[in-house]
Amino acid sequence: MKKTIVVGSRDSELALTQTHFVIGELQKHFPDVDFTVKHIKTEGDKILDVALSKIGDKGLFVKEIENALLSKEIDFAVHSMKDVPTAVPDGLQITTITEREDPRDCYIAKDGKTRLFDTPQGAVIGTSSLRRSAQLLHQRSDFEIVPIRGNLNTRFRKLSEQDMHGIILAYAGVYRLGWADKITEIIDFEKSLPAVGQGALGIETRSDDDFTINIVSALNHDTTASAILAERAFLRQLEGGCQVPIGAYGRLEAEELVLDGVVAGLDGSTVLRDQVRGSADESDALGKKLAQKMVERGADEILKQVRQEFDANA
Fold first, then answer.
1. Which member of 11, 57, 83, 118 is catalytic?
2. Which residue range or ranges hold the Porphobilinogen deaminase N-terminal domain (predicted)?
């Protein structure tokens, strides 16, 4: 008799595309296992008329899914790693991190051709990310940043209906939905460091479920995992959440793990960037080292100011 595994996923088109991709890859390794998908609506999917930064950031897109894991309604969950808080609930673990897609941000122009930094003075740019807006404002303080939320279909619709020059999204999501032809440009890391974990998928399981752990481990990509663990250690050490203007990018260069990080003020006037290098076997320590390096340069003061501004606008 075939074993059936229940997989939890947000019910957005992108989340389901990613979940079915993971299932398809697992079927290649385990053809005798059946997989079924349970759609779960998260708090972040329900509240679409408020900026994410104003409704908190502790598991907005994963909490309900993690509850389903703990109650054994599902056997594992597929997440975009950039949505996963650095603290995972007791009894759960991120067992697998898949090979990363290009983690950069991308720009989609309404006219389909004008590049981001060629837009006119006062250009209106849509993004829901404080990390993106702060880095862009640092380079073009004239940009008017407008919040734009919802799934990718919704954001494309808003671009066509509203008075915006363009929108900024994660390249990986646009690519996975087959919409790469809509992209005007992919934004260089020098201009915008991505969110922690951007471009990678994580598979979360119960810590005591050896059967499922064994199955999903087949998709773990060691190089990506090392990079993501370093990025998450950096974020955790700074006590930053998904909605704080913090970015990071880890990668292997000549057998060495290189980690870049950025911490920015909301208006983009202050942006700190730094880099560390070290062994891929010491991802956690490397992330902490970069965080400490940036704290010594004033990152904690920037984040303190950001939180005070959040509180004042709450």
1. 83
2. 5-211
